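Lecture notes, unit on protein representations.

Consider one protein chain, 314 amino acids long.
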Amino acid sequence: MLYSPFSVMSSYKSCSFCVLVVINVFSFVSADETDLTASDPAGKLGQIGSWSPGGPVLQPGLDSLFSLSLRSSFPEDLEVSDYCRELLHLFGQRYVAYVNCMIPAARPVKVCQSCFSSYGRLVHTYLNISSDQMGPGNVSCRDSLLRSDRVMVVYQLYSNLEDLWSKSDCNHCVTDGYQNLTSDMLFFMSTLNQTLTCFEKYQQGNYTELCKNCKSAYRDMNELYSSMEKNHTLCIDIEDAMNMTRRLWSKKFKCSFAREENVSVIAVSSFMLFLPIIFYLSSFLHSEQKKRKLIHPKRAKSYTSLINIQDKQS
């Protein structure tokens, strides 16, 4: 097929024009990218989004998420007043303070004796939030902070800590109003300190001396624990302290202690063991007495007949 010179020249010009257009567009894009890169020397643009081959998913960076969270907040929340916001902020502070107190007191367990004051402040703040009484400006925070959403975050957070306090039976060791420890708790702590001081004094030498010299203090502590158990005045702090002390006494120091209930059990068991022997022995003695009673008249009769025969012979 033959082409005319004019058609060839026109095709060449059109192709040249297309090439020039592509070169200009590429130069424009390259210049824009250079300007953007120069204006962002820290490379923050690379953190805004990334594209993966699996699909056109935008993954915003940390800075963009922060800006989005600021933009998504409402300018004025008419449901929560300034007074309720202050209460919510105070609740958060006291919640964190109580949790920070409990974690170091987890082992050995001292959550009641170490954290009762911080728990009391948390309870006081929550009661102000959940109260029906109106605050400044006739505002009640119960509906806006506790019932405004399905999850009820503030209520759930407080309920978890309240449940932990209840399971620990800390109310048995803390006075009403979370002001101080009870007298029983203080007395038990004093007795515990005396027992542990005795252990520390004699544990460097022979454990036999420890078992001998600390037996009285350990017995008093056991008796006090038993009485508190009957009176329902135990909490998790006392239970854990008693378990650890008994572990030291029996497993580490290899000491033994004859408790009163063990003595009574041994006495009853011994009596039950010897009861058959006593029964058969008493039966045997009783039967011998009956035999004697049966034989005695025969001897008396033979003796009388013998006297009569002697009289006749004489």
